[in-house]
Amino acid sequence: MGICDNRTVIITGAARGLGRAYALAFAAEGANVVVNDIGTSLGGEGRDTSAANGVVAEIIAGGGKAIANYDDVTDWDAAERIVAAAIAAFGDLHVVVNNAGIVRDRMFVSATLDEWDATMHVHLRGHFCISRHAVNYWRAKQKDGRDPDARIINTTSGAGLQGSIAQAAYSTAKGGIASLTLVQAAELGRYGITANALAPSARTRMTEQAFADKMATEGQDFDVMDPANIAPTLVWLGSAESREVTGCVFELEGGKIMIEDGWREGPAIDKGARWQPAEVGAAVDRLLAERMPPRKVWGS
Fold first, then answer.
1. What confidence category does residue 9 fall into, taking pLDDT thresholds of 50, 70 and 90?
2. Is residue 287 a contact partner of residue 268, using CB atoms and an 8 Å limit?
3. Which residue, 55, 178, 206, 280, is the most exposed by fewest CB within 10 angstroms?
4. Cα 242–246–250 angle (5° rounding)?
5. Angle of helix 50-61 relative to helix 17-28, nearest 10 degrees?
6. Are 60 and 95 in contact (CB under 8 A)?
7. Burial class of residue 192, CB neighbours in 10 A (0-12, 13-18, 19+)
8. What pLDDT, on a 0 to 100 scale, did the predictor assign at position 101?
9. Where are the domains of the chain?
10. How confident is the model over 167-209, as pLDDT tens digits?
């Protein structure tokens, strides 16, 4: 018996890296898995169904249940088909893991509009489309008197939480996903839906190039950057055991689970009257001296 027995989960971008690790871990805990992946390159080009098929074959060979799906999460109608495929194959849907993404690394002064739009399209629109169709299903289920026990699990990033040099578009998109998660949690709890996000640090096609030194494994007894290290927390968040946890962002690396504190009000000065421009500088200096030191932007 696993903690996700008979729960059905859609995982986008599930053919490689973190997505593959998630799919295998969910299946090992008894879940029915929809392995969604269109098989693009790191930058979002091309199509290849073989990788998704390979993950499904691996799950089935291990005694699990899975189907492959090759629909594009950024396409409104295609995202609806992904949800419908899960329900048709397994009779219900419980979890959506928004994992699919691309990266177009570029210093801001060299960034192009096409690269910016492509990054926003995959990350933000992709998270929106499939989650929106899943919520439609879960709301209808509730109206029929069948209370959902549903989960949305989004993927943000350390880049989205603190910024990353040469990743303006990616950081912006991932920061938006963190905010989206907070709104989803606040609005969807009434329907039996929780929403949480992960900021995983692991070896993937994205990180192997950008953070090669950190991703190296030589001389390590414990491979801190193995994507499989992230999967247990994700699987627990997809289980019935996590129903009281919502609106959280978890930063995960190796054996470390960290919950983010988010933006909070910091030091303040209230004059009780309108400030004069010449007075503001001294006030800001005092506030900067009193605040908690911010985390550095990645790469700075």
1. very high
2. yes
3. 280
4. 85
5. 20
6. no
7. middle
8. 94
9. 8-259
10. 999 999 999 999 999 999 999 999 999 999 999 998 865 555 5
pLDDT tens string 228-251: 999 999 999 999 999 999 999 999
Distance from C-alpha of 284 to C-alpha of 195, rounded to nearest angstrom:
36
Which tokens is 95 given? 């979890």
The SS3 of residue 68 is strand
* CB of 29 closer than 8 Å to CB of 239: yes
Residue 151 is encoded by which pair of tokens? Answer: 């989960």
- How many angstroms separate the first and last alpha carbons of the chain? 47
The DSSP secondary structure of 184-228, one letter per residue, reads HHHHHGGGTEEEEEEEEE---HHHHHHTHHHH--TT-SS-TT-GG
Task: Name the DSSP class of 269.
Answer: -
Q: How many CB atoms within 10 Å of residue 206?
A: 20
Q: For residues 260 and 181, is the Cβ–Cβ distance under 8 A?
A: no
What one-character DSSP code corresponds to residue 3? T
**Token pair of 63, please?**
């005694």
Amino acid at 273: A
For residues 127 and 300, give the distance between their C-alpha atoms in angstroms, rounded to a whole number: 29
Dihedral pair phi/psi, residue 146, rounded to 5°: -110, 95
Distance CA 227, CA 222 (A): 12
The tokens for 116 are 């910016």
What amino acid is encoded at 160 in this protein? G
Helix/strand/coil for 179 = helix
**For 8-259, CATH number?**
3.40.50.720
Which amino acid makes up residue 247?
Answer: G
Question: Degrees (nearest 5) of the Cα angle 10, 210, 22?
Answer: 20
As annotated, the active-site residues are: 157, 170, 174
